[in-house]
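PROTEIN DATA CARD
Card holder: Dihydropteroate synthase
Chain length: 289
Origin: Rhodopseudomonas pseudopalustris
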Amino acid sequence: MSAAQQTPAPPTATGGAAALRALLARPVPAVMGILNVTPDSFSDGGDFLSPERAREHAARMIADGADIIDIGAESTRPYGSTPVSAAQELQRLRPVLAAVAALGTPVSIDSMKAEVAAWALDNGASIANDVWGLQRDPGMADVVAARGAPVIVMHNRDDADPAIDIVADINAFFERSLAIAARAGIAEANILLDPGIGFGKTPQQSMITLARLDAFAHFGLPVLVGASRKRFISTVSPSEPKERIGGSIAAHLIAVHNGARIIRAHDVAETAQALQVAHAITTSIEDNR
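Structure generated from the sequence above:
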């Protein structure tokens, strides 16, 4: 392992596991607020590039009900994103991460690079969010294991293939990721699964994945879903990304009904309200049976 991988687990990373367990134990699913410090993210690229605006937006999302802030410094949108180096990613993160972490809400680092995840987990982040499920950077699993941090394992593909059984593909991908995690020594209790809505999938496959989310329950791991403002919504109801709040909430309520425990969203206040009301309605039905 590299020196970065061998760094002892700092309190922020190890504390992330306890904080996450507490969130998952609540009856209402947790909300992960999206903070993109990028110029080219599909929905809000360039909106929060300055450290001041990034911190203000994180504070607003927390006030609106975000339980986790997910910071990304490289756009991972499936179409038209520009890959950046680890140095560029870190340059965007350094002025932002400490200030956001100081707000007191758990922070996840949305990166597919082990070097970036290592730095972030040592400097305020407490959760790793890997959009390639430990399968793109061979050092990622060791970084996570060395710090005792929770990791979100997301399904991805280089290209969408409408001919495949997408649910079977996701299951096979997760099996490979979990094998990598086990070899690295990542505790199973620290793993969450994300089926990667919109990533390597046709719009129809994204909707199938949401409808069949319970097909991943056999892993016995919490599921996170991020359908916020995704392109598949526009195939049903033509709209620009910031006009897809209704479709995002509909997709997320379906996801929760089918087992999701964390929802990753741009529109935190609306999402948190929807989750709370849906839970209250469901509970009132159960209480009166």
